[in-house]
Amino acid sequence: MTSREGALRDERLLDGPLLPVRCRRCAAEVLVRKASWEQTSIQWNAEARAACAGIQDPHDTCPALRSAIQEAALTGAIKVVE
Ligand SMILES: [Zn+2]
Q1: Residues 10-61: tens digit of each pLDDT
Q2: Cα distance between residue 40 and residue 47, in whole Å
Q3: From residue 73, how far is each of 36, 48, 60 by CA, in Å?
Q4: What residues contact 13, with CB distance under 8 A and at least 6 apart?
């Protein structure tokens, strides 16, 4: 996956919905799809990127957001395609 902003727009139509997940520690809200338990697609927008204080690398995810995504998957808020 190279360009997140560009590429993910098409994927949304192919493999199920992108669902919003909000970081617990900051105001960032991203769109997430889990193809499997190991694979998570996250679509950042500029707002979320600016809001998330935990993020250091644009290709990384802040730990609080990561755990929010994990919990959403466990509770069924996000459907794991698998
Ligand atoms: Zn965050």
Answers
A1: 554 556 788 999 988 888 899 999 988 888 888 888 888 888 766 666 556 7
A2: 20
A3: 10, 20, 19
A4: none
Q: Which residues contact 82 (CB under 8 A, 6 or more apart)?
A: 34, 35, 36, 37
Ligand 1: distance of its center to the CA of 69 in Å? 11
CA 47 – ligand 1 centroid, Å? 12
User: How many angstroms separate the alpha carbon of residue 66 from the centre of ligand 1?
Assistant: 8
- Residues whose CB is less than 8 angstroms from the CB of residue 69 and which lie 6 or more positions away in sequence, other chains included: 21, 32, 34, 40, 42, 61, 78
Could you tell me the pTM of the whole model?
0.69
Ligand 1 centroid distance, CA of 34 (Å): 19
